[in-house]
Each structure stands twice: as C-alpha cells, then as structure tokens.
Write a structure and sequence with these properties.
Elements: H1 2-27, H2 31-87, H3 93-103, E1 110-116, E2 119-124, H4 137-142, E3 149-154, E4 160-170, E5 173-183, H5 184-220, H6 222-233, H7 250-295, H8 305-331, E6 341-344, H9 345-356, E7 363-366, E8 373-376, H10 378-393, E9 401-409, E10 416-423, H11 456-466, E11 470-475, E12 481-488
Parallel strand pairs: 7-9
Antiparallel strand pairs: 1-2, 1-5, 3-4, 4-5, 6-8, 9-10, 10-12, 11-12
C-alpha cells in the first residue's frame, strides 16, 4: 500500500515540477515577459507616485472652488444689502436677512447663518451640524465680528471647516453678521471618490494593455524565436535554413543579417567540403602512381630508374598544379579574392594579345579592341583569358584561328564590356555543353582528355562571378567555339559575389 500511495503521488509532483520549470525557464524566461514585467513595474511606480500628487491637486481644486462659491455668496449678500438699504431705505436687519435667505439656495455642505446683535437669528438650511450650530463656540465667536473675515478650523470630528463673515452695517452701525461656512470633507470626498474610480479604471486599462502588449511583443519578437529554432535545426550537413524576412526595423535587420551570415557559412562549408572531395578524388590516382612506381623501384635496372623518378616528379608537379587550382577556386568566394583597379580596356587587351602568342603555333587574330576605363582585377582577368586560350589551343590545329577581342556593350541597360576568345577548332557537342563548366569535367571527344585537370573553365567561371559578371558560349560541332566574358564596367560594392553565372552551353575543358 505504501508503494501504491507513493506511485500515485508521483504524477502530481511531476506536474508541479514541470509547471515550476515552465514558469522559471519558459514564461518568465521569455524576453517579452521580462519586458512587460519591467514596463509594469515602471508604469506601477509612476501611478503610485502620481496618486498622492493628484490627490493633493484634487483637494486643492475642491478648496478653491468652495472658496469661490462662498465668496460669491458674500458678494450676493452685499448686493442685497446695498439694494435694500440704499435703494429701498430698509433699516430692519431681520427683513434684510429674511429676503436674502429666502432667495439663496446654498450648495451641499454650505451653511448660511444670520446673527443679530450677537444672537442667532436664522439659517439656511434650517438644520445645522454641531460644529456651526446656534450654540457652537464658532457661531458665537463669529457673531461678534465687526469686519469681514475668512478662515478655517478643524472640528471635533477632524473635519476642516471653511468660513467667511460679512457684517450687516446700517447707518454706520453693525446690526448683524452673516456667517457662511462649508464643511470641506464632503466636497473633498466626492471628488476623491470620482478620482479613485478613474484610478481603478486606469489600472484595469493598464493591465489589459500589458496583456495585449505581451501578445503583440511576441509577434514582434517572432524573428528571434525563428532564429532560435533555425539555429537549433542547423547541422554540419544542412546549412540551408533561413529566417523569413518581413517588415522593417531591428527585427527585420536581425533576420537579414542572420541569413547573410548563414549564406557565408554555407558557402564556406560548401567550399571546404568541395575542396576535400576534389582533393580526395583527384589526388588518389597520382598518389597511387607515385607509390606504385617507388615501391617497385628496386626491380628496375639502373638505366630505367631515372625515367621512373622523372615520372614520379611529373606526377608531383601535376599534384602541385592541382592543389593550386583548387585553392584558387576556394579563395574565389573570399572578399579579398579581387584587387580592383581602374585600367584602360584597350591597353589590357593589347597586353593579353601579346602574352597569348607564345602559347602555341596558331593563326592568332585580334578581332577588336574596346576603348574605355574599366574597374577590374587585371591579373585575374588575364588569368581567365589565358585559361580560355589554353583551352582553345588544346582543341585546334596549327592552321586554325584563335582570336581574342573586346568591346564596350552599349546595348545593355547597365554599363558592361565583353571580352571573348574565338577559335575555329572542333567545336562542342550539345551533350557536353551543360556540364563542362563543372569541376573535373571534360568533353567526350577531346583529343586531350587524358591531359589537364578539368578545372580551367571552373576557374574562369569563378573569376567572372567574382566580378559580378557571367560567361557566355556559342559553339557548333565542327565550327569552333566562342567564349565571351560579360563583366560590368565598374563592380559595385553592393553586388553579391555569389551572383549566378548566366552561360550558354559550353565547350569542354581540356585544360
């Protein structure tokens, strides 16, 4: 029975523990909850500090209003006296008081008391509180005054009483005194009741606004939740997750910055993975050749050994060139891959034409020379053109034409220039034109398929993309091929280095 009772209590303890964890780590751990709590503390503090201040202001306004009403009653009495005494020549104090009290309707908690010769005569309303009754010390004291006075006292119930007196003077003699008194507690309490109702309503509205703000802030902070979920879902094999970018402001900027960071990371990981795959794929064969020949070196005659060593050195040189090309492709994604300069297109074209004539015995031509200033990396651009020329040399005969040229493209919407390499070689089959720009791909009909590393066109593509440009190809089998680099006259800093290369089906890479 003991075991059963303990087992029955476990679910309740588990629920309690989970609820406490949710409160501490979930609800109170959320950014929006902490923001709302701080806003609630700030708002509550401001309200708490403002209540005494506004209470004092309400009481002061009530006192001012009551004082103005009493002064108005005094003025009405003076007007009445002047009318009766000066105009109607009335000298009877009782008739003057009767007429005045008959016409006046005092406000709540306001009392009009008439005294003649120091004795109580009449009041309005008839029923008076003890503090200003006919026998009260205050009434007796004020009935003896001979000049207008004003003041306030606190009665035995701790109530503050504001009073004014106005003597009734007829023929230069004081015939009586009008006492006007008001118990301020009643007026104050009515105003404070209304004030506290407003405070309660304001408190309810603030609580409702905070609850509504909690939900709205959750919506505004949704990119952060999306960022957290995306960060949790990222792995070494999947860096494709992105945050939805919407709206404006800090949250949208955060989402955009995070996505840009993920794009850079994805490129870096893809470049690293591609480099490892390429190296492992391409180094396997030359390493096997070197290893096999060196292991069997003892079986060769002394006359054969130099040839075997030369073969191993050739393979090592090929490995060196391969690694250099792979490193260049990996660096193509870096910000410092290009060193941009402003150069003359005509001078660069002439310089490249002079360099390529030593690459082989071909019918070299210079089709056209564009004029104008361009903002490029001249060394990288020269490297790309020479790679294309090397590719053309490998697919042409001695009498074939290889031509280069450049021009400013004035038909484009944005300033661009074109640099092309044209040959009259064997051309490109359509089946090969979709894949020769990929790494380690060569055309099936290439006479030099056993040579090169299959990276020449990949390097040209990387250089074109790093300039925010593209490479185009026009070729027909048996009629040669024309590769054209289309690059902007000036590469903007805002242009993405990962711009897609727009290319036609291309020639096989025989480099």
């Amino acid at each position: 029975m003991l075991i059963n009772s303990q087992s029955k209590s476990l679910p309740g303890k588990t629920l309690s523990f989970c609820f406490k964890n949710w409160l501490s780590d979930g609800f109170f751990g959320e950014t929006r909850t902490r923001i709302i709590i701080w806003y609630a503390i700030l708002t509550g503090s401001c309200l708490g500090l403002s209540i005494p201040l506004f209470t004092h202001l309400v009481i002061w306004q009530v006192d001012q209003r009551v004082a103005e009403n009493l002064q108005e009653e005094i003025q009405n009495f003076r007007d009445c006296v002047n009318n009766k005494v000066l105009v109607e020549k009335q000298t009877d104090a009782k008739k003057i008081f009767d007429h005045f009290l008959y016409e006046q309707y005092p406000a709540d908690k306001t009392f009009l008391i008439a005294t003649i010769q120091g004795e109580f005569y009449r009041s309005s309303p008839l029923r008076l509180p003890q503090s200003v009754s006919r026998t009260s010390p205050l009434t007796r004291e004020l009935s003896q005054t001979t000049e207008p006075i004003e003041g306030h006292i606190v009665d035995h119930k701790k109530r503050e009483i504001l009073y004014y007196t106005e003597p009734l003077i007829i023929d230069g003699k004081v015939k009586g005194v009008l006492i006007i008194a008001n118990i301020l507690a009643g007026e104050r309490q009515e105003a404070l009741d209304t004030f506290f109702i407003v405070i309660i309503a304001l408190f309810v509205l603030v609580v409702f606004a905070l609850i509504l703000a909690w939900f709205i802030s959750g919506r505004l902070l949704r990119p952060i939740q999306s960022l957290i979920k995306t960060a949790h879902s990222i792995s070494e094999t999947d860096l494709s997750k992105r945050i939805c970018e919407s709206g404006r402001g800090e949250m949208a900027s955060l989402a955009k910055t995070f996505n840009q960071m993920m794009e850079r990371l994805e490129k870096a990981f893809m470049a690293h993975r591609q480099l490892v795959n390429d190296v492992s794929h391409e180094l396997r064969t030359p390493i096997a050749i070197i290893q096999g020949n060196l292991e069997s070196l003892d079986y060769y005659t002394p006359e054969e050994r130099p040839e075997i060593i030369k073969l191993a050195l050739d393979e090592l040189s090929r490995i060196t060139r391969l690694v250099e090309d792979l490193l260049l492709l990996a660096r193509a994604e870096n910000q410092d891959f290009l060193i941009l300069e402003t150069v003359e297109l005509a001078e660069l074209t002439q310089a490249i034409y002079l360099k390529i004539q030593g690459l082989g015995k071909r019918n070299w031509r210079l089709d056209a020379v564009g004029t104008g200033k361009i903002n490029v990396d001249p060394q990288r651009l020269t490297q790309a053109i020479i790679n294309l020329v090397n590719n053309a040399v490998q697919h042409t005969q001695e009498n074939d034409i290889i031509a280069i040229g450049s021009c400013i493209d004035k038909t484009s919407n944005k300033p661009e220039f074109r640099f092309w390499v044209r040959d009259t070689g064997e051309g490109i089959p359509k089946a090969d034109q979709h894949r020769i720009f990929q790494r380690f791909e060569r055309g099936e009909n290439s006479r030099s398929s056993s040579e090169g590393r299959g990276l020449g066109l990949s390097i040209v593509t990387a250089i074109a993309e790093s300039h925010a440009g593209s490479i185009e190809l026009y070729s027909q089998l048996g009629q040669g091929a024309t590769f054209t680099l289309v690059l902007p006259m000036k590469k903007s800093r805002n242009q993405s280095d990962s711009s897609k290369t727009l290319r036609n089906p291309g020639l096989e890479d025989g480099d």
